[in-house]
Write a structure and sequence with these properties.
InterPro entries: DNA_methylase_N6_adenine_CS, SAM-dependent_MTases_sf, Small_mtfrase_dom, tRNA_Adenine-N(6)_MTase, tRNA_adenine-N6_MeTrfase. The protein is α/β, with parallel strands linked by helices. It has helices spanning 29-37, 55-63, 76-87, 130-136, 143-153, 166-178, 226-232, and strands at 11-12, 17-18, 45-49, 68-73, 95-99, 111-116, 154-165, 182-192, 199-205, 212-220, 223-224. Helix 1 runs parallel beside helix 2.
């Protein structure tokens, strides 16, 4: 029988299951899009910052069979949920989670890839649930500090992938460029053809490069769009 914290039904993907316990980061379309969209030829080490339930780390483990994935989070409940989900996955031997603030994280190696679904409420009232507030509010991990930390943790050829709402994403990219990052990939996401861009998927590189730009529409008139299905079909059960 499962422990009390993990008696919820959970969210089943094709090769793993996410059970959230009391974590502040439930499964979101943003996270799934980011995990499916990020690219890398053959990373040896991947870092998932603010892992929550471990979704992005698990997606990376599925996609990159030779990679070792380290996940970090400052919330005890998130670390417990991620640890549970990792231990019940097919890749438990390549996944680890650390209960730490990434700003004080000192790993023994640099990473080829970093993936992060960062907090984005810069102003306004914090969410009432404390874990969810931490997961979504920039007070716990300001974007400038996050960018500087990522730069230090990546190797020379490393890249970092993020997802943010369009306004916060544009500000984040502008800040990154002032810190010496290059924008290597950018995908503008619309919920549907009739609605404006609401999310940015983007990849930052330490080395100078051109920007590869793309566009994604999530929903068509009769369900998910063909492009969204192609992007996520390796993960969602009904794709």
């Amino acid at each position: 029988m499962k422990s009390g914290k993990f008696q919820t039904k959970g969210f089943k993907f094709k090769q793993f299951c996410i059970e959230g316990g009391e974590s502040g980061m439930p499964v979101s379309t943003d996270g799934v899009m980011l995990g499916a969209w990020m690219e890398s030829p053959s990373p040896a080490h991947i870092l998932d910052i603010g892992t929550g339930t471990g979704l992005l780390a698990l997606m990376c483990a599925q996609r990159f069979p030779d990679a070792k994935i380290t996940a970090v989070d400052i919330e005890t409940t998130a670390v417990e949920a991620a640890s549970h989900n990792f231990s019940h996955s097919p890749w438990h031997d390549r996944l680890s989670v650390k209960h730490t603030d990434v700003l004080s994280f000192s790993p023994p190696q640099r990473f080829q890839r970093i993936v992060c679904n960062p907090p984005y409420f810069n102003t306004g009232e914090q969410a009432k649930q404390s874990q969810r507030a931490t997961a979504r509010h920039t007070d716990s991990l300001r974007h400038d500090a996050l960018l500087k930390c990522c730069y230090q943790l990546l190797d020379a050829e490393g890249k970092a992938s993020f997802v943010l709402p369009i306004t916060e994403g544009e500000l984040f990219i502008e800040l990154a460029l002032t810190q010496g990052w290059a924008l290597s990939r950018l995908c503008r996401v619309q919920p549907s053809e009739k609605k404006p861009v609401h999310r940015l998927l983007f990849e930052l590189a330490k080395q100078p490069c051109d920007t590869q730009e793309s566009h994604l529409i999530i929903h068509s008139s009769d369900g998910y769009s063909d492009d969204f299905v192609r992007l996520t079909h390796e993960f969602y059960l009904k794709m």
